[in-house]
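assembly run, all chains below
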Amino acid sequence: MISGTLVIFLLFVAPLVGVMVCALPLNGKAAIRTSAFVSAFECAVAAFLWYAKGNTPRMFGCGDVLFLDTLSLYHVSLVAIVFLFSSIYAVGYFATDIRSGLFDRASARRFGMLWNGFLAVLMAVLCSNNMGLLWISLEASTLVSALLILTRGKPASVEAMWKYLILCSVGIAFAFVGTLLLSVAARGATSAATGSLLWTTLSDNAVSLNGNVACAAFVFALVGFGTKAGLAPMHTWLPDAHSQAPTPVSALFSGVMLSCAMYCIMRYIAICEPAMGFSGRPHAMLIGFGLLSIAAAAVFIPSQKNIKRFLAYSSVEHIGIVALGLGIGGLGTVAALFHTLNHSVAKPLAFFSAGNLARQYDSHDMHAISGAVSRNRLWGGAFLAAVLALAGMAPFAVFMSEFQIVKATVDTGRYVQLALFLAGAIVVFASASRHAIAVSLGNTPSHVLRYIPRPAEYAIVCICLLAMLVFGLWMPEWLKTTLQQAAIIIENRAALPWSLVP
Amino acid sequence: MKTPLTALVIVLVVSNFYILSTSRLGALIRVAAFQGLVLGLLPFITQAQHFSQHTLILGIGGMALKGLIIPALLFRALRGVEAYREDKPLIGYTGSIALGILFAASSFWVGSAIPPSGLFPFPIMVSLAIFMAASGLFLIIARSQVLSQVVGYLILENSIFVFGISLSAEQSFLVEMGALLDLLVGVIIMGIVIYHINREFDSISTEELEALKE
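ok done. output:
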């Protein structure tokens, strides 16, 4: 029997081997393909970990420095799947550039190294039991991914990279203060938790932590990790970075990097809420940031012209919805986790389609892209479906998770918050649908040639859309159980006052 | 222990005021290096009673990194660009010093309200940390040269180091080394961006970076 420890280790060793392989004198195509192989392997490792974990609540590795529970394994699986789709898409995306010499061998190898390095640090974020290592890994992900934005080396991407680097580094510095305060909050706790920065120890002894210091720790962590997650008003780097990065990288940013930052906040909720005697203050802060993010998206989405900036602002909205769900708690937490999955599937698909259409029409301006469905049935159709799904149209899964959040808000009697959420969501729905319809339908410019997709592209579109439809109409039992178990980890209380049944 | 600690705090406060008042980029880097060296001494004073090998390695490692290696990298970046001064700061130097006085007064007022306790054994360090964090953030916001902003980021990192000492928060060796490594890699990458900004815009002023404004 292969030990779980060894397999947890494989989660970062495999991408690190990928980095080394890309450092060898490969040709450009092989470097990009390496990333796809590594991601496929990671998916297999994640699948095996689900099997190996079985009903054990926690699996440890390297003593107790690394660990996996349902919450982290859920996120590990999302990261592995989104990386796999993005790497497969990247193979086709860069193939033209490699053929035309725009993307030389050295650039492709550098890209492959950074891509695999990014995967390794995100896995490290998700497997860290030590809150210090969690912070270090997330900061490292900023550094690695900043260089990915620069792949094209255009002036605008330099500007986007600078903003991303400085804003996220400063933001993450605040999260480090949160980590320091957390270790101080544990000082007066039971002997087991004293001086410990291990999440498992801190969450098990959370009620004995110093509540006031834990509250301060949560504020710093929320602002710090919230900057990286793209919560308003710290989101200003996000539209620039998403719009200037190459499309496969934008898909990763939106699909998994933001979720990984939210994951760090989830870990803090599990410690700080019990430490503060379930006062609800961390939840209230999350609701505030969540509603502000939804409002920011509702203000900026209607006036967007650039197709990728539009999708970036949509990510601000969805991260806001996740924060809102977490803030409501109970069923809201389950819905927030479900929404994370839905966003991680639909947003990369929207970015892939946008990237493909922007190339075909040679413009990112949505006014210049019209009639996409008639010139590019696959990606034009995928863009329309993905954006409508993201806007919250039934029967796609995003509608279901948003509906659950609405239900949780009503159940807890938060009618003002509900009104604000619905107002924002309606504005976003109307403007996003308008953008999607204008791009997909309408007259086609005559100079645009018809696009012939590869079989792999059909597979990506079909799998993502099918998942969105199936999860929207029917939630499998295993998914429901996983979401409930992960929500219980975040809530971290013996008796749940709410029903977690979606 | 109080006297050397107070002396180091005064030195750091004065150096911070110098950072707020100078327009020369070279001087900014030198003062940040000086602060790095002084900060390396702090653990030796605050942890004098339970001094360990761990403290020694981190103290010396921190001094080497913040006092020598990072400044050397920044000077290298500075040599590659034709910029020696902050020409158009968003807030002038008199205004910067006035704000610095305000930052210092309010942070030491906050610090004086904290009674020395098990949680905060060195309240004066909390004041210093808040003052340095405010100065670092101010530099990032109010200066237009990219290099000044990098120095602002370093001051902010230094302030967190001071805050960690004020709490005598014991991080594991691995975490502290990891944090230092992240800082080093961060500065190297910022150096790479400075090179690219200079190449694309023929200047390292953030005033050029406005193509993506909403």
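The longest helix of chain B spans residues 173-201.

Chain B has a mean pLDDT of 86.

not gonna interpret more than that til we talk
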